[in-house]
């Protein structure tokens, strides 16, 4: 009396790529070799069920797509269907060839899938399933439709990991369900772009064959493996050397690195441990008086910028309770930063006639967002945050100048596209809401070109004093730069954690040297900008 | 499997269903009451067995992961391969990975998480965003300085994204709260993508590796 009226087997041949509709594919689904006796005895009824299942899926709305099931021995495409609650897939198709048998209960209200000693129970129109007695919450109810048990795609890994007793991973971006353990090389791509150099790093979890080709206007990088996983955050064009990095895909897993008008030379280097490929794209050095072309983000017209730099806001890092880093000899970053900031102010005001404000005049803490808000309030033309660096590595030394790494999420890109031409953020507005935050982010994003140029000039001058050519200009998502609506950089003048540099930083004379070099860098940027914007009409996009 | 076994299984399945309903009614009810959004089902599902021990359900299986620590002699992060306990659910697996990071290196690299840092919670949202909730030591124990802070943040982000491609960005929380930064530098108000430019360049001796095919110039 416990005999179930319906019994559908989840076993099928590996050719389930085509939705089983007609007799042929349906018959192939009953590949007997993986079947046990019970299910094969009931093949006739199962066949009827599967036929119905096939039509249920193939008859689904046009939105039907597919996912790839990848195991150590096979790779199959499985049809999925879009439903109002989300995307669903027939669990039988996903499990095909994995030696799973299924038993439905009398009323078709539940199905028990069995594999070895593991058991998975689904209930019709219930979001709760159980694996070996443990409850699993699905993102949408499982449903029995035309004899097929449909489950939400994004719940597969949660259900199948424990059921199959092996790692099961749903890779949303590639639409691959990896039924492990399988070794798939993973590539993480990062870009760094400054005024003179762009670097694209392809880091792999295992050695993979790269093939680099230089073509007209682009460099292609192929990764010659069956399957790779790619992490490629959206990058932003800057500097006119590198326009974009995109994953084209295809059988050879091709990346396309689009080159900008200032690109001159490619250097590709492969490295081991970690395995990676580094592309270095360089621009020709600028001759004296030559102006760096302004590269404007494609969909946006740069605001007409005032050529003259009149007001500079200097931000001495940390303060008050927040002492920042402390040197081995006890020197405090907050004190060094304030002292250098005061000396820089004197340089800029006395020798160059600029208007200068400090975000803090004394030993007090100021919020990170308040610091950039102060610069916005003064309508500053430049924002320079001054810090001293620290590292766990004892030998770390030298100066670094950072500008903001800006990587918009998809949401924000879309939002930005919708709000083209929206009003500039009001100076002083506190970025409390998501909306305000996005607008503020966009504010610095528009100045990245100039922030990069300012960072380069300051670093060049600073390196003369600190002798640290190696470190150079860097990019990082530093909070204090996010809200600045003007070219903005963060200067790490030297490593206070390094005993030698700490001694120097504590000295008045050395601080004065650093301040003077910062002032020279600012002055060079100021002259270049005046030359560029003063002579050239604002014609966005012109190289 | 024999026919008899299958029948027994059917019986067990149905009995199991009844038993499940009968014995777990309060848990079902509780789960149904909680507004389980599709976004955080991992969380809801985890409530039934809070903080699963790493070895739970994994039958001693181990997986190999790549952890990023700070290089002692160069500027940047370096990877270290390590075998860790396998966990069937992604959030649990991420948790063990960050806990391994917190243990520090076994190959002489520098630990990037301050001593005493604990992993309070890890959950994964739709769209591939992992949230890692750390104890307060993560911020309080930093040596100060942006370089150290960058390495702390990106040792976590790069490690997670490199090992788990279904995660594309990582958001770091401290004591269950969002924060602007760990130590006054890196913006943590939003999820971060990985940054592989922070991985150390090879030691100068290895720098002479020949450039790969530059292809034919058009």
**Overall mean pLDDT score of chain A?**
78
Termini gap of chain B? 64 Å
Total helices of chain A: the number is: 13
* Portion in helices of chain A: 25-40%
From the spread of the alpha carbons, the general shape of chain B counts as: globular
Low-pLDDT segments of chain A: 1-63, 293-305, 409-439, 535-543
- Strand tally of chain B is 5
Percent in strands of chain A: 25-35%
Q: State the shape of chain A.
A: elongated
Structural description of this entry:
The complex is a heterodimer of chains A (543) and B (218). With 543 residues, chain A is α+β, with helices and mostly antiparallel strands. Helices cover 28% and strands 30% of the residues of chain A. Chain A is built from 13 helices and 26 strands. Chain A has helices spanning 23-29, 37-41, 43-58, 91-94, 156-164, 333-352, 368-377, 410-418, 434-445, 448-466, 479-482, 499-506, 508-535; strands at residues 65-70, 75-83, 86-90, 101-104, 110-115, 118-123, 126-131, 134-145, 148-152, 168-171, 176-179, 186-193, 197-204, 210-215, 218-223, 229-231, 242-249, 254-259, 265-271, 276-282, 311-316, 355-358, 382-389, 400-404, 473-476, 488-495. In chain A, α1 crosses α3 (43-58), α6 packs across α13 and α10 packs antiparallel against α13. The longest helix of chain A is centred in the C-terminal third of the chain and has 28 residues, at 508-535. Chain A starts with 22 loop residues before the first helix and ends in an 8-residue tail after the last helix. Residues 1-63, 293-305, 409-439 and 535-543 of chain A have low confidence and may be disordered. Chain B is α+β, with helices and mostly antiparallel strands. Chain B has a domain at 62-198. Chain B has helices at residues 3-33, 41-46, 90-103, 137-140, 146-163; strands spanning 62-70, 77-85, 119-125, 129-134, 169-174. In chain B, the strands form two sheets. A three-stranded mixed beta sheet of chain B has the order 3-4-5. Chain B has a two-stranded antiparallel ribbon with strand order 1-2. In chain B, β1 and β2 form a beta hairpin. The termini of chain B are far apart. Classes of the chains: A alpha+beta (543), B alpha+beta (218). Chains A and B meet through α2, β5, β6, β7 and β8 of A and α1, α2, β1 and α5 of B.
């Amino acid at each position: 009396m416990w005999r179930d009226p319906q019994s559908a087997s989840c076993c099928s041949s590996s050719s389930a790529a085509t939705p089983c509709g007609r007799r042929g594919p349906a018959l192939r689904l009953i590949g007997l070799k993986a079947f046990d006796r019970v299910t094969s005895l009931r093949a006739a009824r199962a066949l009827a069920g599967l036929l119905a299942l096939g039509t249920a899926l193939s008859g689904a709305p046009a939105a039907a797509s597919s996912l790839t099931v990848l195991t150590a021995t096979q790779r199959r495409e499985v049809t999925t269907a879009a439903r109002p609650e989300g995307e669903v897939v027939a669990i039988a198709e996903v499990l095909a060839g994995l030696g799973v048998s299924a038993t439905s209960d009398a009323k078709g209200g539940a199905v028990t899938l069995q594999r070895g000693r593991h058991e998975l129970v689904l209930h019709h129109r219930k979001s709760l399933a159980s694996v070996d007695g443990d409850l699993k919450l699905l993102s949408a109810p499982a449903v029995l439709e035309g004899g097929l048990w449909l489950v939400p795609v994004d719940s597969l890994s949660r259900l199948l990991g424990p059921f199959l007793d092996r790692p099961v991973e749903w890779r949303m971006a590639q639409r691959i369900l990896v039924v492990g353990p399988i070794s798939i090389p993973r590539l993480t791509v990062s870009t760094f772009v400054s005024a003179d150099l762009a670097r694209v790093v392809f880091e792999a979890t295992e050695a993979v064959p790269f093939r680099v080709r230089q073509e007209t206007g682009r460099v292609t990088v192929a990764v010659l493996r069956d399957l790779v996983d790619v992490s490629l955050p959206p990058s932003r064009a800057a500097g006119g050397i590198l326009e974009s990095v995109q994953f084209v895909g295809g059988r050879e897993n091709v990346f396309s690195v689009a080159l900008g008008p200032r690109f001159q030379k490619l250097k590709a280097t492969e490295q081991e441990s970690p395995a990676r490929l580094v592309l270095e794209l360089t621009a020709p050095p600028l001759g004296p008086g030559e102006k760096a072309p302004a590269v404007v983000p494609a969909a946006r017209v740069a605001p007409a910028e005032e050529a003259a730099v009149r007001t500079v806001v200097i931000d001495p890092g940390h303060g008050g309770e927040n002492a920042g880093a402390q040197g081995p000899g006890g020197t405090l970053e907050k004190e060094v930063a304030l002292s250098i900031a005061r000396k820089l102010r004197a340089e800029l005001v006395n020798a160059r006639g600029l208007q200068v404000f400090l975000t803090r005049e004394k030993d007090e803490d100021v919020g990170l967002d308040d610091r950039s808000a102060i610069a916005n309030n003064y309508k500053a033309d430049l924002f320079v945050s001054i810090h001293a660096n620290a590292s766990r590595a004892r030998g770390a030394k030298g100066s670094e100048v950072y500008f903001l790494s800006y990587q918009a999420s998809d949401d924000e890109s879309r939002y930005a596209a919708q709000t083209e031409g929206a009003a500039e953020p009001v100076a002083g507005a506190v970025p409390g809401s998501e909306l305000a935050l996005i607008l503020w982010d966009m504010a610095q994003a528009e100045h990245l070109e100039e922030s990069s140029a300012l960072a380069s000039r300051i670093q060049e001058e600073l390196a003369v004093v600190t002798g640290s050519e190696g470190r150079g200009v860097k990019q990082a998502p530093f909070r204090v730069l996010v809200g600045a609506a003007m070219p903005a950089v963060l200067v790490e003048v030297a490593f206070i954690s390094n005993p030698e540099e700490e001694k120097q930083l504590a000295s008045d004379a050395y601080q004065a040297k650093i301040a003077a070099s910062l002032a020279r860098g600012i002055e060079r940027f100021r002259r270049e900008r005046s030359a560029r914007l003063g002579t050239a009409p604002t014609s966005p996009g012109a190289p | 499997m024999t026919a008899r076994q299958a029948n027994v299984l059917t019986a067990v399945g149905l009995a199991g269903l009844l038993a499940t309903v009968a014995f777990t009614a309060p848990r079902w009810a509780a789960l149904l009451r909680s507004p389980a959004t599709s976004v955080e089902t991992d969380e809801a599902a985890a409530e039934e067995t809070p903080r699963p021990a790493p070895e739970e359900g994994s039958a001693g299986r181990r997986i190999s992961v790549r952890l990023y620590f700070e290089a002692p002699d160069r500027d940047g992060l370096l990877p270290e391969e390590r075998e860790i306990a396998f966990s069937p659910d992604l959030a649990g697996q991420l948790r063990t990975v960050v806990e391994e990071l917190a243990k520090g290196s076994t190959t002489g690299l520098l630990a990037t998480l301050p001593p005493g840092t604990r992993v309070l919670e890890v959950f994964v949202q739709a769209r591939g965003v992992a949230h890692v909730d750390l104890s307060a030591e993560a911020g309080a124990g930093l040596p100060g300085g942006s370089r150290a802070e960058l390495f702390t943040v990106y040792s976590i982000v790069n490690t997670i994204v490199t090992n788990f491609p279904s995660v594309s960005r990582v958001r770091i929380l401290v004591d269950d709260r969002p924060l602007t930064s760990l130590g006054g530098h890196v913006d943590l108000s939003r999820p971060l993508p990985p940054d592989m430019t922070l991985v150390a360049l090879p030691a100068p001796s290895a720098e002479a590796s020949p450039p790969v095919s530059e292809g034919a110039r058009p």
